[in-house]
Amino acid sequence: xxxxxxxxxxxxxxxxxxxxxxxxxxxxxxxxxxxxxxxxxxxxxxxxxxxxxxxxxxxxxxxxxxxxxxxxxxxxxxxxxxxxxxxxxxxxxxxxxxxxxxxxxxxxxxxxxxxxxxxxxxxxxxxxxxxxxxxxxxxxxxxxxxxxxxxxxxxxxxxxxxxxxxxxxxxxxxxxxxxxxxxxxxxxxxxxxxxxxxxxxxxxxxxxxxxxxxxxxxxxxxxxxxxxxxxxxxxxxxxxxxxxxxxxxxxxxxxxxxxxxxxxxxxxxxxxxxxxxxxxxxxxxxxxxxxxxxxxxxxxxxxxxxxxxxxxxxxxxxxxxxxxxxxxxxxxxxxxxxxxxxxxxxxxxxxxxxxxxxxxxxxxxxxxxxxxxxxxxxxxxxxxxxxxxxxxxxxxxxxxxxxxxxxxxxxxxxxxxxxxxxxxxxxxxxxxxxxxxxxxxxxxxxxxxxxxxxxxxxxxxxxxxxxxxxxxxxxxxxxxxxxxxxxxxxxxxxxxxxxxxxxxxxxxxxxxxxxxxxxxxxxxxxxxxxxxxxxxxxxxxxxxxxxxxxxxxxxxxxxxxxxxxxxxxxxxxxxxxxxxxxxxxxxxxxxxxxxxxxxxxxxxxxxxxxxxxxxxxxxxxxxxxxxxxxxxxxxxxxxxxxxxxxxxxxxxxxxxxxxxxxxxxxxxxxxxxxxxxxxxxxxxxxxxxxxxxxxxxxxxxxxxxxxx
Length: 708
Hints:
By secondary structure, the protein is an alpha/beta fold. Helix content is 40%, strand content 14%. The protein contains 26 helices and 22 strands. Strands 11-10-12-13-15-14-20 form a seven-stranded mixed sheet, with helices on both faces. It has a six-stranded parallel sheet with strand order 1-7-8-4-3-2, sandwiched between helices.
């Protein structure tokens, strides 16, 4: 349902003189802050500048339609006028430009124009284009979950009954796949999101017809069911107000999402790192100048008698004074202290490595020993009963998406049955399937977590996590730090990984833990036993940090790692390794499926040669229990690091390097590594046996190291 709008008179009637003058004030203020930042950059007083010039009209209008601290906002870097209209001050924007400690956007941690303001519900924005789409959808989905989950609806939920999420973007970013994923879910769930496409015709130097088939993204979107589409001259503030009001009304009425395609201009280069003269001819730039809203809107105010020249001059003088005062304040503001760099990598309030999360010595066992699958399921069941904020979703995690069929089927509950029965127990509002799109899962989870829900999501196989890596690395792990603790995203991401499957092959056997343990802000854990899986998952759910929870497929139903149910308060803190076999001659540091192989190798060399091998199960890959490792090294003086990743550049390389750095004086031999070959995992069992570390490989390494 796409329409092009005009009708300025109707919209003007809804805006009184004070509001129209305020729109002009916002537009002019935004432009003059841009100009001031350009001046400061040329004076080397700030370090980056990207402007919102040409976008001011539609954004100032949007600030009059949407409600700060009521609606929610996912912005992009050209949204200066919107943020000013919502209540951000010129001083706050220039504090960001100089990187001041008092900058409310990020505390000096992000580039200027990466907007974020906790009090105004402007969620911290980032540089990767398009990551905001799925998060905005998750934020809107929070309204749906709070409205339908009974225990949350009965409480005092942090939602408004007709709140709307505004998500803005440039035209170039609509080429990102996550834009289409977001529209798919928003329309499918009829979520109250308004997407505002600020189309200035260029993505840096790439014109719109190269980015978008046919040159119009709104024309491509007409097939999305229930998507209310409006197209407007975004350089016309009044027409923009009318269109945005219609879009917001549609979303507030819970009819579904809306999209406004606003045609704007870009009178300045993409940023001060770009020079548009190199790719835009003079005639094209002149045509833009003639559409400039900073010229058109004051002319309209004069022609219609809304304002006199004297009134407009007074506004201009006020803006100049406001910008100069803001610049003076910002330039005089102190920079962040260097000691603050480590603040807010993780939650400052909840420490999952602390004794608060250590009930390992007091399990309350009930029932017979059972598998890792069962104890993971039991933990999820216990935690969902305890905390109604927990929602669980991913591919195939529900028992049956078509609820009317639940009575006739056994239920899926995940490829490995970890989530089996949870939809029946807690309802389809808390346990539900997602599209087959990994970025969709993580991006939505981030938006939900921002609103106070506790998503526990599943990526079906580690091998397919890569479409979500942008959301995991640049968004989930970074949100707290980049927003200076204004926003947090405590999401648990469960993912199966690993080989030893006899037939898993290249795309069902991947590991690669080091890709994620190298990401600050992300906790990574990997249980080797059923009991540890239960306790570590409970800690993951109750902590306030993002957690990647690795579940080895080979370990799901092994009989040797079974355990009884330890009870609903059983927790193992992160960063606490376990000595699973005492020894005195040599230490093996390992995790996951290699733990049992290390135990078997240690027993074999003891039986055959009388060698005493200590085996440490790390359990937590980030953080690492260095104290337990160093204590063992001091005792045995010889170390093997064993891991399932490829030998070169794998997780064990960092462990080996740190041991060499911190415990070199206690070593009687080099630190040795045992790992997979620097290849991929093959389908043929004979090849897999050679590729992955086996008991015999560990026995040989133990013997060789003791002979050094």
